[in-house]
Every structure is written in structure tokens, then in C-alpha cells.
Specification:
This protein is an alpha+beta fold. It has two domains: 6-46, Winged helix-like DNA-binding domain superfamily/Winged helix DNA-binding domain (Arc Repressor Mutant, subunit A), CATH 1.10.10.10; 66-140, Alpha-Beta Plaits (2-Layer Sandwich). The chain has five helices and four strands; from the N terminus they run αααβαββαβ. The chain has helices spanning 6-17, 23-30, 34-46, 79-91, 116-125, and strands at 66-74, 95-100, 107-113, 133-140. 14% of the residues are buried.
């Protein structure tokens, strides 16, 4: 396991802000030589702390004009019901995130669609047809003043 210290934490913060930063610039920002910085990054990757790098996209430019968080409750609390629901969500391109949560419902989804009409179609034709779905509550995103997801 990789030993985490303030330098490794600093490396992770910088890479979370900009995964394409050059090793030279990263080394300068965290106060290491380029070779020491590269060794640290490679160790963070090898140990599984860094699991990948992503492109941050402008969802509006890609035609996504509607975002909602959706709480989904199941009427049956079995492993089979959960697995069936999770398989259905994995197949739905509108579902960008699916989280099994604690509380009054079982799932929290992040849904992205072109517009309200496309979301209604997803709500009716996808969520409305999945076995064991008992309750659906939608929260429409009106703005995101802070969004640190990459």
C-alpha cells in the first residue's frame, strides 16, 4: 500500500484539477524534482489510488440541456431486485450515475437528457417499466455553482 503524506495529497489535488498537467509543472507545484514526482505518480497509479484519467466535457455542447437527480424506491428489498434494477440502469444511457444509498429509498440516480420531453420518455419508458420500482422522485437541477466531478 502506498504511504500517503501531504505531498501525495497535494499531487492528487493537482491532478484532480488538471489531469493533463505536465510532470514538470506538477513537480514545481508540489515541490519535488521531476523524477521524484514521476515516481510518486506512478506509485499512486500502481497502488490503485489513481484509477484513471478523464476528459471533462461540456454537456450542453453535447446536447444535454436537462439534468435531474432521481430517488428510486423498490417495493422488494432482495438481492435479485437490486441486481435487476442495477442491470437496467447500466443499460440506460441517460443514467450517468447510479448510487445504492441508505435512507427512505434505495437508489439515487443522476440523469442527463436533451430536454424535459426526453426526460419524460426516460421516466415513463425506462424507469416506469423496471420491475420492483415503487417510488420515483425527481429533483431538477437548475444550476451547479460547484461541481468537482471530472
Amino acid at each position: 500500500m502506498t504511504k500517503m503524506d501531504h505531498i501525495s495529497d497535494h499531487i492528487l489535488r493537482e491532478l484532480e484539477r488538471n489531469g493533463r498537467i505536465s510532470n514538470l509543472e506538477l513537480a514545481e507545484r508540489v515541490g519535488l524534482s521531476p523524477s521524484a514526482c514521476l515516481r510518486r505518480v506512478q506509485e499512486l497509479e500502481r497502488s490503485g489510488i489513481i484509477t484513471g484519467y478523464r476528459a471533462v466535457t461540456d454537456r450542453t455542447a453535447l446536447g444535454v440541456g436537462f439534468v435531474a437527480y432521481v430517488m428510486v424506491g423498490l417495493n422488494e428489498h432482495t438481492k435479485a431486485a437490486q441486481e435487476g434494477f442495477e442491470r437496467a440502469m447500466a443499460q440506460a444511457p441517460e443514467v450517468r450515475e447510479c448510487h445504492n444509498i441508505t435512507g427512505a429509498v434505495e437508489y439515487l440516480l443522476r440523469i442527463e437528457a436533451a430536454d424535459l420531453i426526453a426526460y419524460k420518455r426516460f421516466h415513463t419508458e425506462v424507469l416506469g417499466t423496471v420491475a420492483h420500482v415503487n417510488a420515483i422522485t425527481s429533483y431538477v437541477v437548475m444550476g451547479s455553482p460547484k461541481d468537482a466531478r471530472a
